[in-house]
Design a protein that fits this description.
The chain has 265 residues and is an alpha/beta fold. 47% of the residues lie in helices and 14% in strands. The chain has 9 helices and 7 strands; from the N terminus they run H-E-H-E-H-E-H-E-H-E-H-E-H-H-H-E. It binds NADPH dihydro-nicotinamide-adenine-dinucleotide phosphate. NADPH dihydro-nicotinamide-adenine-dinucleotide phosphate binds next to helix 2, strand 2, helix 5 and helix 7. Keywords: Oxidoreductase.
């Protein structure tokens, strides 16, 4: 068999695929949007407030020949999510790839933790993933295909001590289980649902902690991983392109870990 006949190189090709990325204006979501576009996908970027940054990114994608547009929507708001899906449907009539990346962290001791912060964390990190998956999932069921990738976390698998992130950790553990449930329910519709569970990744979200607690970062974040460092957003891109592509055609319900070995010990 010749190399050409096996066609392995094109398994990762996403040319013309329609992708929705929530929280695609910055950090991990932005890198994932860029990676999908670099592999040929058209990308809709969903953001709550950083519309200007998302518009600038969509301009870059369009200049490179992709179809790209921005949707301002709060993933935790059912009406916003319905409108978001209608915009995608009106523009493309389908959606091949959904990246549920939007997420927040609101730290605090459990004994003092405001119930409002608990609810807000669950609303964005868990309800938001359910709502967006449901709205886009209906389109995927109609077309009988699709790949959904939920951005979970190693915090959904272990307690990232000494941080006090109970709400965040529980939301990400829930996201991992939701991934498995949707993978099971929607396999018969040709939809694959997987999660990515990153370790500590350098973004604006983690930069804030880094500024405030450099000692904690040095002693716990980097040292926790067997690779002895934190990761970059670019180090997640390959996994997401893989999970989105035909190369992962037999992979569903997987919690794909990219954490430099943080959860090994
Ligand atoms: P950032 O805070 O840098 O970016 C978060 C993105 O999500 C922004 O684009 C933000 O848009 C968007 N967003 C937040 N809330 C909403 C909402 N309600 N509706 C729509 N969009 C929203 O985070 P990171 O890039 O660091 O993290 C991205 C994902 O990766 C999160 O789910 C996080 O939990 C997860 N993760 C991060 C790790 C890390 O070390 N950085 C490790 C493991 C997982 P806007 O500003 O417009 O609100």
């Amino acid at each position: 068999m010749t190399l050409e006949k096996r066609d392995y190189a094109r398994m990762f090709d996403l040319t013309g695929r329609k992708a929705v990325v929530t929280g695609g204006s910055r950090g991990i979501g932005r890198a994932l949007a860029e990676a999908l576009a670099a592999h040929g996908a058209d990308v809709a970027i969903v953001v709550r407030s950083t519309v200007d940054r998302a518009e600038a990114l969509a301009d870059e994608f369009r200049a490179a020949g992709r179809d790209s547009f921005v949707i301002k929507a709060d993933v935790a708001d059912p009406a916003d999510v319905t409108r978001m899906a209608e915009e995608v449907d009106a523009r493309w009539g389908l959606c091949d790839i959904l990246i549920n990346n939007a997420g927040i962290v609101l730290p605090g001791n459990a004994e003092d933790y405001p119930f409002q912060s608990w609810r807000e964390t669950m609303s964005v990190n868990l309800d938001g993933v359910f709502l967006v998956s449901q709205a886009i999932g209906r389109m995927m069921i109609r077309q009988k295909s699709g790949s959904i990738i939920n951005i979970g976390s190693m915090s959904g698998r272990i307690v990232n001590w000494p941080f006090r992130h109970a709400a965040y950790n529980v939301s990400k553990a829930g996201l991992h289980m939701l991934t498995k449930c949707l993978a099971t329910e929607w396999a018969e519709h040709g939809i694959r649902v997987n999660a990515l569970a990153p370790g500590y990744i350098r973004t604006e979200l983690t930069d804030e902690v880094l500024r405030e607690h450099p000692d904690v970062v040095a002693n716990h974040w980097a040292k926790g991983a067997v690779m002895d460092r934190i990761g970059s957003v670019d180090e997640l891109a390959g996994s997401v392109v893989y999970l989105a592509s035909d190369a992962a055609s037999f992979t569903t319900g997987e919690i794909h870990t990219v954490d430099g070995g943080l959860t090994l010990r």
